[in-house]
């Protein structure tokens, strides 16, 4: 029995069964076991493959071995592995892994795969087999405790694990039926994961249960380690007994904070004066967090690990403990606070003609809210203090000057509206509203942007190492995608690819806005832009049209700001030049860590919001709503409602023909109909999964046939169960 004979036979006869091979090789019945062993050996050597339910064999060719992170799709029926590449500019290549070849890999694991191709394939399509799991993404699972056939069961929240059976080995005492729990994998064999239930998270009836579960599985605890709590004991609750240490005393100045209604950590305050010569003095005063958070202390190590505060619908997971973020570092009204102050003189054209930086002490005179200040600007509803009114009106004058200056530089403001979740007192979503940005929000943003620019210019001019906030110009692929969408919308523009700068891009955007200025266009524009990140290499900030930019104004909630504060204190204020080498050595790593932390935080915020959106839409199942197509993919299209929430219309629910996506992913076509990006459609809400944050919709005209298909499946499943039970 020669393995080469089998391979030669399969070269001529693809998809052959065991019996076909046995007949040709004249294998007797008693040698079937040997043939099975030989076929399995050839499978292990990746020379042939057994084709699923057909139980046929095909010849395959090994292309290469690849390592990368595996991502599940379609409820774990298949997955993709993106090849690991040290070159960030290299094209990212993903390989398809059928579900039967996952080999105990779980979503997010780092794996090694063999990329293969069918010998008889007429195209270059490949597939892959997971050879081994190099490292687990996690050995923990979130699920709900239930009952199955009289035994306690674990149902994972992620749909990716429908093909896996979970067996509970041990259970914490406090866990009860219908609780959302954390399980830790003990073993994974024969498609069965044995796990210990190690923590009760919440009862599934708790409106915040799934939000809490997500923060647990992402390992984002609200509480701080004991060593951090021990460090906090040394930090005072007030600065009454502290020495001023050459600080500029600004406690008599009319300085205020302007924040959201629910804000508790106030890290920036402002004051504005209009000078007799027509210039303005802008003071921006930032909490002096670095005075309390010493480098390499347990508190600093934990802050770097967190990187940023996470503002979730359930509350804040702070970067710093509340004793600092809401206490000694928060610029609360009528309390003395240490700050770092930027005092800038700005002329009527918006140019900064002077900028100085100080260690300072302030006392905020008012805790103002955006809503209340907007009432002053929009409705002339004045405050009782005439000095406050005058200062705020002068601040508005200056904000308009700064905004006009930025627009001339190429800054583009799309005024993108975000959905805001409204909760009842128990944490259940009762509404989702879109709140437009007011003038006071823009005022604070413009003042903070100007401050960040001036700090970056100051440090760069002195060749002091620090962390920039950078934003690359759009790459050619994204510009091509942008042009494809505009073409579908019937908008013609000319883009000089050799001259992509903020000003030229702004002209194009303004021209487009004259033609069409709905929210969809804003979404298209955002997709064109790169992600901003932290770096020690200054390439400018494209979106803000800034040559020099850093983050300085939010050290309570962002670690890079804290580092920039330290650099100012140690190298500028304390004149310790020995620190320059130290910061040159560490800043690249700090920048990379914080770019990653920021993206993780944004993803967690989006994902937790999605859970509450789905909770809200559960009450809308069966309702007809108007929506706009904002994205087209191979498996369907995403639509967006007026409240800015999105739902998936799966391609399988489209009832008038077989649909295909065009190569630019701008149209979904059948012989009967074509859907384009930006089209308005009428849909019915078909489902909302609050455990995964998914909302499904069906075109209103297809809803009847969709319900019929569901009935057929239910009847089919019911008949199958009756047959199995012998009824």
Rg, nearest Å: 30 Å
> Tally of extended strands?
33
Structural class: alpha+beta
Average pLDDT, all residues: 92
β content, as a range? 25-35%
Cα distance spanning the termini: 49 Å
Largest sheet, in brief, is: 7 strands, antiparallel
What share of the residues lie within helices? 25-40%
Number of helices: 16
Low-confidence parts lasting 5 or more residues at pLDDT below 50?
Answer: none
Tell the overall outline: globular
- What count of domains describes the coordinates? 5
Write up this protein.
This protein folds into five domains: 3-121, no CATH class; 140-205, OB fold (Dihydrolipoamide Acetyltransferase, E2P), CATH 2.40.50; 226-471 and 535-608, no CATH class; 476-529, no CATH class; 621-724, OB fold (Dihydrolipoamide Acetyltransferase, E2P), CATH 2.40.50. The protein contains 16 helices and 33 strands. Helix 4 (209-217) runs antiparallel to helix 15 (579-617), helix 9 (386-409) packs across helix 10 (439-461) and helix 14 (559-573) runs antiparallel to helix 15 (579-617). The two termini are 49 Å apart.
